[in-house]
Fold:
Amino acid sequence: MRPGILKTQTKYQNTISDTHTFAPQNFINTQVHNMQALSGKVAIITGGASGIGRATAARFLEEGAAVAIWDLNEAAMQALGESWSEYGDRLRFYKVNTSSLDAVTEAAAAVHADLGGIHILVNNAGITRDASLKKMTSEQWDQVISVNLTGVFNCTKAVQPYMEAQNWGRIISASSVVGLYGNFGQTNYAATKAGVIAMTKVWARELGRKGITANAIAPGYIETDMMRTVPENVLAGMREKTPLQRLGKPEEIAAAYAFLASDDAAYINGATLSVDGGMTI
Structure:
């Protein structure tokens, strides 16, 4: 078994696999009809087993893409393999630590071999370790930097050669309104999300001539599992700050990812799209 690639001996082995029984060209030629915006494309979604990542994987599958989910949560991936079994070989799972360049380089090679290409990368994986500057530890700082910033660099570096070889690619990374405006107690998180925007601009300049666009999305407050631990009075304050007077839904962020991955967004490059209900106006 290749290190870092999830392999389970279950009836879902066709979808959670590191085997090469799948014929890439047959997949590209025989999958869903051309009316689907992402038909024939292969997308990697980091942190794709839950929350916004899961919603994005669902949207991309609906749009006809083959999806490779990179995550560390084996139980969540196993559950998705069971509930989404109808997608067959269009859905693959890989246990990947995105903070390791060796791991993501190997995983990218596996996706290319398993699915016949890499066209889209959604850098969605992220963590928080909140504390005020006075209380934040070096460990909390390093943990967030490792996943949210170094992980995005690693994944993009790993897929870039495949995209350049085909003269086509979409790199879409998760920033945040916190990366634009800051937030109390999130020095580490804000630094990573601002860094994602800066890296996106650099990649847009460097890779555009290779047919690769790079864009970022800056979500506002979104209804994810993480929000379920937030006190109701704090949630009420979040809603109050948003002109639409509600939190966003993961599916709304997924729709923005799908748009930026599509041919309709072919001339959008180096942009940061705020999806926040008007919170930052």
